[in-house]
Specification:
Blueprint: E1 7-12, H1 16-28, E2 32-38, H2 49-53, H3 63-68, E3 73-76, E4 78-83, E5 88-93, E6 97-102, E7 105-108, E8 113-114, H4 122-125, E9 127-128, H5 132-144, E10 155-159, H6 163-175, E11 180-184, H7 200-212, E12 216-217, E13 223-226, E14 230-233, E15 238-240, E16 243-246, E17 250-251, H8 255-258, E18 269-270, E19 283-285, E20 290-291, E21 293-294, E22 298-299, H9 304-322, E23 336-340, E24 346-351, E25 357-362, H10 364-382
Parallel strand pairs: 1-2, 1-7, 2-3, 7-19, 9-16, 10-11, 10-16, 11-12, 18-20
Antiparallel strand pairs: 4-5, 5-6, 8-17, 13-14, 14-15, 21-22, 23-24, 24-25
Helix pairs in contact: 1-9, 1-10
Bound molecules: flavin-adenine dinucleotide.
Residues 12-18, 37-40, 46-47, 49-50, 78-79, 109-112, 129, 164, 167, 253, 255, 287-288, 302-305, 307, 338 line the site of flavin-adenine dinucleotide (FAD).
Length: 403
């Protein structure tokens, strides 16, 4: 890594993973020129997008200030392509058109987005929780459907049976009591299956909460096609909607695959134990767009829980290399999943280090308070908040370990 000028570090993507890496490098490394590139001007708490669609106001978290405070710079642009041979990324900005940015080390963290490609019509007729302005627009649409009286307003169909779909269904069920909310989890809630790999206690609590909040569950069949005002189910039935929210799986951007970097079938960069691309040693990959195996956890799932520690790990790998040392392997193990079930309820599902659920769960207000704390803790972990305060003391139990 030795050179004459400053070592050029370019980070693609300011999500939980990429921004954590950028922050730690900016705070610790010297002789480095650090650039963060993202399409939007502000960090978005992606794990709160369903809350924003339910009416919560997002915090303003501008990248520019964040990076300047860490001796780096922020470029608002879309990365169009990577040229690993020349160590360049091609970017496009609204004002200046296309230009190139050179790197010595690239940190690849463009994350993921909702899969609206697999089921026909979803891209045209369904909305998703990918962007803050999308969540705000969804909130405006939902309030426009409101009527007076329980469940007499419009119908919101939520497609998906994983944690994002459950969180959205509970959020709307609790906060928009005049709307009819239908959750279509496909085969996910069929007998013998559990959404998001929950324990029996966790699954039972989710079902009880959905029922308490008046969410209807259309389980059993998958959605075969999305039409402008209804979905066709694979069993021949249809469900009418005013708004269809798609929350059924994530895809990763094709940037790495298009550049000839070694990727998995889904397009995640294949990394070694130090988060380094196996085909391009000057590229580190983190977050949802990285395929990362650890000794303790096995394959890391797409999550903020794993992505943010990966950002820390990439910064450590970079620091070791910059100083001519051998980087340590990235270590990570899971301890719990936290799921918001509206503002007043939540589920902390404890898991073993490999992410398999154990029976213990925290539910109700205790779960909600912990979930909120963990969202704030994730933000503080990136570097935005230094005034997090102690963990909540309801009830006075030993707090779970927080990665
Ligand atoms: C509603 C919701 C709730 C969730 N709740 C949880 C939870 O409770 N716990 C949990 O662990 N996970 C949760 N997740 C998943 C979690 O949000 C993601 O796994 C996590 O955000 C991934 O982090 P990341 O940094 O890899 O990518 P992202 O957060 O997706 O960030 C990627 C960044 O890259 C930028 N980018 C992408 N392409 C380009 C490009 N070409 N050029 C420039 N910039 C680009 C994007 O603008 C974005 O800022 C939730 C997801 C959703 C949608």
């Amino acid at each position: 890594m030795a050179g004459t000028g400053p070592h050029e570090v370019v980070v693609i993507g300011g999500g939980y993973a990429g921004l954590t890496a950028a922050a730690r490098i900016g705070e610790t490394a010297s002789g480095v020129s650090l650039t963060l590139i993202d399409t939007k001007p502000e960090f978005v708490e992606r794990i709160r997008l369903h809350e924003m669609a339910g009416g919560s106001t997002p915090r303003a978290l501008p990248y520019e200030d964040f990076m300047t405070a860490r001796h780096g710079r922020f470029v608002q642009a879309k990365v169009m392509s990577i040229d690993p041979g020349r160590r360049r990324v091609l970017i496009e900005t609204d004002h200046k058109g296309q230009s190139e940015v050179a790197y010595d080390t690239l940190i690849y963290a463009p994350g993921s987005y909702t899969d609206r490609q697999t089921v026909p019509g979803a891209d045209r007729h369904a909305v998703c929780l990918d962007m803050a302005d999308g969540s705000a627009a969804l909130y405006a649409r939902l309030t426009g459907l409101a009527r007076t009286g329980a469940r007499t307003g419009g119908t919101v169909l939520i497609a998906g049976g994983g944690l994002t779909a459950i969180e959205a269904a509970c959020e709307f069920g609790e906060r928009m009591t005049d709307l009819r909310i239908i959750l279509a989890p496909g085969r996910n809630f069929a007998p013998g299956t559990k959404p998001g790999d929950l324990s029996k206690a966790g699954f039972d609590h989710v079902i009880a909460t959905l029922e308490r909040l008046g969410v209807e569950i259309a389980a059993g069949a998958r959605i075969a096609r999305v039409q402008p005002d209804h979905v066709d189910m694979e069993d021949g039935s249809t469900i009418a909607f005013d708004v269809c929210l798609w929350a059924a799986g994530f895809l990763v951007p094709p940037l790495a695959a298009d550049a000839g970097i070694e990727v998995t079938q889904s397009g995640q960069i294949v990394t070694d134990e130090t988060l380094t691309s196996v085909s391009h040693p000057d590229i580190l990959a983190v977050g949802d767009a990285a395929h990362v195996m650890t000794e303790i956890a096995g394959k890391c799932r797409m999550s903020c829980a794993a992505g943010r520690p990966m950002g820390e790990g990439a910064a450590r790998t970079f620091d070791a290399r910059l100083n001519g040392a051998r980087p340590d392997a990235f270590t990570f193990g899971y301890s719990f999943r936290c799921i918001s079930l509206g503002r007043e309820d939540g589920l902390i599902q404890f898991v073993d280090a490999t992410d398999q659920p154990v029976e213990e769960v925290w539910t109700g207000k205790r779960g909600a308070v912990w979930k909120e704390y963990i969202c704030r803790r994730a933000l503080a972990g990136v570097g935005f908040d230094n005034d997090l305060g102690p963990p909540p003391n309801v009830p006075p139990d030993t707090p779970p370990e927080i990665s």
